[in-house]
Amino acid sequence: MAYTIAEKPEEAAAFAKETDVNENPELRAAFDGKVAAEGKVEPRDWMPVKYRKTLVRQISQHAHSEYVGMLPEGNWVTRAPSLRRKAVLLSKIQDEAGHALYLYSAVETLGVSRDELLDALHEGRAKYSSIFNYPTLTWADIAAIGWLVDGAAIVNQVSLQRCSYGPYSRAMVRICKEESFHQRQGYEAMMVMAQGSPAQKKLAQDALNRWWWPSLMMFGPSDKDSPNSAQSMAWRIKRDSNDDLRQRFVDMTVPQADYLGLTMPDPDLKWNEETGHYDFGDIDWEEFWRVVNGNGICNRERLSARQKAWDEGAWVRDAAMAHAEKKRARQAQRAAAE
Ligand code: FAQ
User: Fold this and answer.
1) pTM (two decimals)
2) Residues pairing with 278 in the sheet
3) Cα 79 from Cα 279, distance rounded (Å)
4) Of the residues 136, 211, 231, 292, which should be mutated to test ligand 1's pocket, given the most ligand atoms within 8 Å of the CB?
5) Whose CA is nearest to atom 7 of ligand 1?
6) pLDDT digits (tens, 9 = 90+) for 237-291
7) Does ligand 1 lie within 6 Å of residue 58's CB atom?
8) Which amino acid residue places its CA nearest to atom 43 of ligand 1?
9) Which of 21, 98, 123, 156 is the most buried (most CB within 10 A)?
10) End-to-end alpha-carbon separation of the chain, Å?
11) 307: CB partners within 8 A, 6+ apart
12) Ligand 1: distance of its center to the CA of 165 in Å?
């Protein structure tokens, strides 16, 4: 069972060290062969050091995104417009927490502890998705997050289900099922607003105007400016390029906006008969890098909220550890008495 090593991070760390010194052509050829044959690389398999590092980088960024991603929506739990909307929102946020947990566990299979990962996040050394550094100003923003942000996440994650690393690929299968519900509830909430009063329709359009471009940025820099893509695609960690996934998302989402009677905030958006895709305007890459590098509207607020939750949860972690220790001591006592 691939996940068991997550319960033993020290074993995984020792294993990771061992693979460094063992790098040899036969092991490398076996690894390359497995990846080429669409096999899954598992935690105890030999893997190149850089493959492991790339996975730790990408999966931990993904885990942090799910974890920080609870905050913009959490802002609306007490102000959801009905009991039904509130129940759905709460359950969605809990799902995001669950996704973060699967993903942190997947990183632990690579020999890095959760504490190390969270230290890096809290100290601002780790990246997480740029999208979660934008504010949720109205209820329509919550609908837009479900429709657009979860919609973009699904396009990216369906592709990652075929990732060559077993634990990540399996986590994606489960996560995609939940994201699909998230996207539908967002689209349905957006539809209610878009077909509601003129004031509601205006809120829906305003949310689309503010979330459209940041959603396109979720797919990362353009292929020509993406330093990690070539190697990640060769190792089948990533299965489609940033630009291809972004185009897939645009093609899928424009007809959905048309159906809602909303207008995409892009004057250059138009159907291209020749390519069979929508052409779209230029992304503001300066804004993208500003946000990625910690200077978006909410970066500081998000990190301080996560740090506060971590500090305030210390007693829960301490209690769980004390309970586990007591249980272990009782079991040892019982075993000694038998
Ligand atoms: N934001 O060379 P590339 C969700 C960084 S989950 C911040 O192209 P790569 C669920 C990138 O890390 C959303 N940083 O990198 C939800 C790299 O930095 P590094 C998250 C970004 O890895 C919904 C540098 O730029 N999903 O939404 C971004 O090959 C609603 C160069 O880029 C995932 O994380 C960005 N947008 O491709 C939760 C999916 N883009 O490490 C709550 C998994 C790029 O070299 C509510 N990740 N960077 O310093 C991936 O698929 C890939 O990592 C990419 C980037 C496509 C994001």
Assistant:
1) 0.92
2) 271
3) 38
4) 292
5) 129
6) 999 999 999 999 999 999 999 999 999 999 999 999 999 999 999 999 999 999 9
7) yes
8) 62
9) 156
10) 31
11) 122
12) 17
